[in-house]
């Protein structure tokens, strides 16, 4: 159960998408999301979809990985679709009791569903092709200027690095504790939601205690290795923003601007 | 007492160090000792004898209440030299999971060098060298949580020796490992000591590990209870009174003596033990 968590999952590879500078990828994803919200008509959606399909196929990550990631969202997607179908006014196509299906409603539903699916697939593409380490690195660099207004950028990035490092360790430990509690008759799998949530208490308490102990140990180990904050720190891997990264970023920016303008007009 | 000339060579020296935690109980009581360049020392003692507290004084994680600790001539209480002190004395802890910072092996080994502001090219070079020194180069791109305990501990050692320390303090590094992992770690540590001339302070519960060292320091109630070569320490009758176990070979000979065999003191390793028994049997025949 716990091993299914796919947070920050990364599929190593050497495709064009993988090799793109992580900062460029972060910015691209950000622009992509904005453009997706500005898109409104058939034309703009088609352009965005073309980009997404191109990027996904270039990443050489099997399509089923994306489908697997989308599965938990099925309920939200269907709900969004239904709400839009029934609650949009316009030309009535069919009517039954209090339910009415309108042409506008159908179109709106398709649009919303596409928007959600494309949004999630796009962000999956980012985490699937970028190692967590590169992502935190990119975030630290991009947010660097905020240090001037005293935002603890380095500390935030370090927190993310450590969190990502300890997720598998803590999952393993949670599994171990669960098995130990099961061996003594604990029941995690039956009953309603409230009962199941209550059953998790004897799991969470030891997990928290151990996490704090680990934190203390890690702090001492980090200090022993001369950690003293972000000041004067260097990195082994230096991110290199190449001409190709800039070119792709510029091209995407231009197209997104086009999508934005057309989308606002209504295409 | 250690002579003056030896103090000049000392990587770490404790001068009358006393220390108490917040609750007032004295954990270290007037400890004086020196660790010389390239020396392999084992620190043994019961739980609560002050071994780990002693270790944490070696690189300024804890500071003495009384007396002082010198690392390469620098006082650990001197804030200006703190990074130099920590670079000179590397520290490896018991739980390998809790000392690995990054989610890629080589990134973790680079951590200390990044903190010290070493240029990227040189970091790469030193990380590769450190990983080779612990035989983990082939695993440099692996995720730490997928490694065995012994491998994780070797990564932790690599992360410390990348700083090129003069001394390595290991606080029960094999306590959580299986026999295979224990062997791996000990072999690496001994090699570092012999070939790279790194002084090693090994805190351990395993007397078979202590038997491999140049010198054994026995801690009891915050004091250095005894100090000497493993041969001296484990043959000493006083030893039995400290309530600590002895290496299995020594224990066997002791039992044989009790049983009436005439076996001289001073055998330590399995081979020596076998020889001693062989000779005793020869005399009897």
Structure report:
The complex is a heterodimer of chains A (267) and B (285). Chain A has helices spanning 16-19, 22-38, 42-59, 63-70, 74-86, 103-129, 132-142, 153-183, 193-199, 201-224, 243-265; strands at 92-96, 99-102. With 267 residues, chain A is mainly alpha-helical. Chain A has 2 domains: 7-130 and 237-267, no CATH class; 152-235, no CATH class. In chain A, helix 2 runs antiparallel to helix 6 (103-129) and helix 3 (42-59) packs antiparallel against helix 11 (243-265). Chain A is flat, with a radius of gyration of 23 Å. Chain B has 2 domains: 4-246, P-loop containing nucleotide triphosphate hydrolases (Rossmann fold); 247-285, no CATH class. Helices cover 41% and strands 22% of the residues of chain B. Chain B is built from 12 helices and 10 strands. In chain B, the strands form 2 sheets. Chain B has a 6-stranded mixed beta sheet with strand order 6-7-8-3-9-10, with helices on both faces. The model of chain B is unreliable at 1-6 (pLDDT under 50). The interface between A and B is large, with 30 and 41 residues.
Question: How does the SSE layout of this entry go?
Answer:
The complex is a heterodimer of chains A (267) and B (285).
Chain A: H1 16-19, H2 22-38, H3 42-59, H4 63-70, H5 74-86, E1 92-96, E2 99-102, H6 103-129, H7 132-142, H8 153-183, H9 193-199, H10 201-224, H11 243-265
Chain B: H1 4-9, E1 10-20, E2 26-36, E3 40-45, H2 51-57, E4 66-71, E5 74-75, H3 82-88, E6 89-92, H4 105-115, H5 120-133, H6 149-161, E7 167-171, H7 179-196, E8 199-203, H8 207-210, E9 215-220, E10 223-228, H9 230-235, H10 238-241, H11 248-258, H12 270-284
Parallel strand pairs in B: 3-8, 3-9, 6-7, 7-8
Antiparallel strand pairs in B: 1-2, 1-4, 4-5, 9-10
């Amino acid at each position: 159960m716990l091993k299914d968590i796919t947070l920050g999952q990364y599929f190593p590879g050497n495709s064009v998408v993988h090799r793109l500078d992580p900062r460029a990828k972060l910015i691209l994803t950000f622009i992509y999301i904005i453009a997706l919200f500005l898109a409104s008509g058939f034309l703009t959606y088609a352009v965005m979809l073309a980009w997404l399909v191109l990027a996904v196929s270039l990443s050489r990550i099997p399509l089923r990985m994306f489908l697997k990631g989308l599965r938990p969202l099925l309920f939200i997607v269907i709900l969004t679709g239904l709400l839009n179908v029934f609650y949009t006014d316009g030309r009535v196509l069919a009517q039954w009791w209090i339910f009415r299906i309108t042409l506008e409603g159908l179109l709106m539903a398709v649009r919303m569903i596409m928007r959600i699916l494309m949004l999630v697939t796009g962000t999956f593409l980012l985490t699937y092709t970028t190692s967590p380490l590169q992502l935190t690195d990119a975030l630290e660099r991009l947010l660097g200027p905020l240090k001037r207004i005293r935002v603890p950028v380095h500390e935030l990035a370090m927190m993310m690095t450590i969190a990502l490092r300890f997720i598998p360790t803590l999952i393993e430990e949670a599994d171990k504790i669960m098995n130990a509690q099961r061996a003594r008759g604990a029941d995690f799998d039956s009953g309603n939601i409230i009962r199941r949530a209550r059953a998790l208490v004897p799991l969470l308490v030891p997990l928290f205690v151990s996490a704090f102990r680990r934190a203390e140990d890690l702090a001492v180990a980090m200090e022993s290795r001369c950690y003293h904050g972000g000041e004067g720190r260097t990195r082994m891997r230096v991110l290199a923003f190449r001409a190709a990264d800039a070119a792709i970023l510029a091209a995407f920016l231009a197209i997104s601007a086009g999508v934005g303008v057309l989308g606002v007009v209504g295409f | 007492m250690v002579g003056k000339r030896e103090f000049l060579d000392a990587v770490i020296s404790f001068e009358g160090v006393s220390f108490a935690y917040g609750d007032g109980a004295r954990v270290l009581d007037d400890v004086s000792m020196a660790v010389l360049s390239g020396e392999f020392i084992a620190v043994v003692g019961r739980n609560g004898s002050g071994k780990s507290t002693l270790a944490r004084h070696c690189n300024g994680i804890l500071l003495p209440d009384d007396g002082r600790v010198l690392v390469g001539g620098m006082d650990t209480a001197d804030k200006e030299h703190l990074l130099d002190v920590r670079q000179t004395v590397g520290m490896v802890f018991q739980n390998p999971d809790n000392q690995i910072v990054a989610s890629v092996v080589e990134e973790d080994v680079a951590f200390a060098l990044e903190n010290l502001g070493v240029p990227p090219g040189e970091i790469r070079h030193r990380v590769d060298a450190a990983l080779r020194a612990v035989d983990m180069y082939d695993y440099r791109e692996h995720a730490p949580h997928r490694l065995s305990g012994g491998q994780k501990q070797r990564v932790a050692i690599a992360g410390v020796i990348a700083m090129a320390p003069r001394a390595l303090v290991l606080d029960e590094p094999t306590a959580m490992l299986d026999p295979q992992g224990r062997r791996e770690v000990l072999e690496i540590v001994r090699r570092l000591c012999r070939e790279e001339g790194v002084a090693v302070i090994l805190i351990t519960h395993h007397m078979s590990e202590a038997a491999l060292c140049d010198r054994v320091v026995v801690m009891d109630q915050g004091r250095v209870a005894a100090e000497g070569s493993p041969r001296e320490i484990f043959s000493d009758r006083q030893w039995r009174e400290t309530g600590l176990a002895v290496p299995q070979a020594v224990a066997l000979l002791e039992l044989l003596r009790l049983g009436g065999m005439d076996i001289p003191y001073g055998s330590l390793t399995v081979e020596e033990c076998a020889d001693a028994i062989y000779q005793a049997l020869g005399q009897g025949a």
